[in-house]
Design goal:
The complex is a heterodimer of chains A (226) and B (164). With 226 residues, chain A is α+β, with helices and mostly antiparallel strands. Chain A has eight helices and six strands. Chain B has a two-stranded antiparallel ribbon with strand order 1-2. Classes of the chains: A alpha+beta (226), B mainly alpha (164).
């Protein structure tokens, strides 16, 4: 380096420095929008059942006190989440309907853009009062991760199976209306150190990773102890 | 023997540069699109405060792309090899501490990451791979002049030139 001015090497540093500047410049141009897109937008449109103070989760039975508070972090594309749904989904639905628990759903989107679309559509379905049904049907038909199966038109067609025919739902899905909300959910999950999906808390404490995710009996036990 | 090494050295350097650079570039490139996942991968090591881990998870893929791209092009070879080697060294420490503490995580080196089922971890392979890359980085720090690089090769014509 000290001999950079020496012409012995026959190459001049201008080309090299230009290349370095271009590489760093291009990457910075990519980095800035990524950082900006990760900012929480406090004025984001949110589905009507979302509770901002509960990490932007969609909360059922929010008004209930003295019942277990179950929080579920999931990604609609994650196979383990689909498994968890088949094991405890019906029981959770029952807890919600019989008002025996307060339940918050946090749809994360770390697996990719299709998770983002699904989370947005789930919010749209929640506005139609169909979140639980949407949730169940979605997991029952979960395609392979990022296979391109999930698109806006997929979700507008899919909802017909749930009897959702409203124009608002269609508009909500097509315009990706809850895009910023989905980012907020992800940011809150990141702040809460959610490192795998599904992650479930009961009254703020994570359930036993080795047992309660794979067995309805263990899960019910965890709820009853809460 | 010495003469043969003098001839081979820039070619070995080229292979080292492309391997280290290629791995770093690919690792970064595969993660720039999935910042949430990358943040999760860093958090899962449980080494940093959460906010710092989230920041690192956001930036690290881009840093890897820069170091990787410049190594592939052969620009600032010695500096980039030092940075790349340092990065790998930190990864080794991070993976080793996760292993020692009995965490069950994927290194998240090429995307993915986060918690995995017990028995699904690949700590040994991950550490050995990174050790190999540290070795390549060390070689490039010692012999930074390589074939087909944008750097000026200062030691051309003088076999003692690489001793600085």
């Amino acid at each position: 380096m000290a001999q950079a001015k020496n012409s012995k090497g026959g190459k001049d540093n201008f080309t090299r420095n230009l290349v370095i500047a271009v590489v760093i410049g291009v990457v910075l141009i990519m980095l800035v929008p990524t950082i900006l897109s990760k900012q929480t937008n406090t004025s984001a449109a949110v589905p009507s059942i979302v509770s901002v103070e509960d990490g932007y989760g969609m909360v059922f039975n929010k008004e209930l006190q003295d019942v277990p508070f179950i929080e579920i972090y999931e990604d609609f594309q994650c196979p383990a989440c689909a498994r968890f749904e088949t094991i405890v989904g019906e029981y959770l639905e029952d807890l919600i309907n019989t008002k025996k628990a307060k339940v918050a759903y946090h749809p994360l989107s770390f697996l990719g853009p299709e998770s983002q679309l699904a989370a947005n559509a789930a919010g749209c379905a929640a506005d139609e009062g169909q979140f639980i049904q949407f949730h169940k049907l979605l997991y029952a038909n979960q395609p392979a991760e990022n296979s391109g199966a999930w698109s806006s038109s997929y979700f507008t067609t899919f909802s017909l199976g749930l009897g959702i025919t409203s124009k608002e739902y269609e508009k909500c899905v097509n315009n990706n209306e809850y895009k910023d909300w989905v980012i907020n959910v992800a940011n809150e999950g990141a702040k809460r150190n959610i490192n795998s999906t599904p992650t479930v808390f009961i009254n703020g404490k994570e359930i036993d990773r080795d047992r309660a995710y794979n067995s309805l009996g263990e899960f019910m036990l965890a709820v009853s102890k809460a | 023997m010495k003469n043969r090494f003098v001839i081979l050295q820039p070619w070995i350097g080229l292979v080292a540069r492309l391997t280290l650079g290629g791995v770093l570039f690919a690792a970064g490139y595969l993660k720039v699109d999935t910042p949430d996942e990358s943040q999760m991968a860093v958090r899962a090591y449980e080494m940093l405060p959460i906010s710092l881990a989230n920041l690192l998870g956001l930036i690290l893929p881009f840093v890897e792309v820069v170091i990787g791209a410049l190594l592939i092009l052969g620009a600032l070879t010695r500096v980039m090899a030092a940075l790349g080697g340092f990065t790998m060294f930190i990864f080794i420490i991070a993976i080793a501490q996760a292993w020692a503490r009995g965490l069950n995580i994927d290194c998240g080196c090429f995307g993915g990451g986060g918690a995995v089922e017990p028995g699904q971890t690949k700590y040994l392979q991950e550490i050995l791979r990174d050790l190999g890359l540290v070795f390549l980085a060390a070689y490039l720090i010692r012999y930074p002049s390589t074939k087909f690089s944008l750097d000026r090769n200062e030691n051309r014509k003088s076999s003692q030139g690489e001793v600085e």
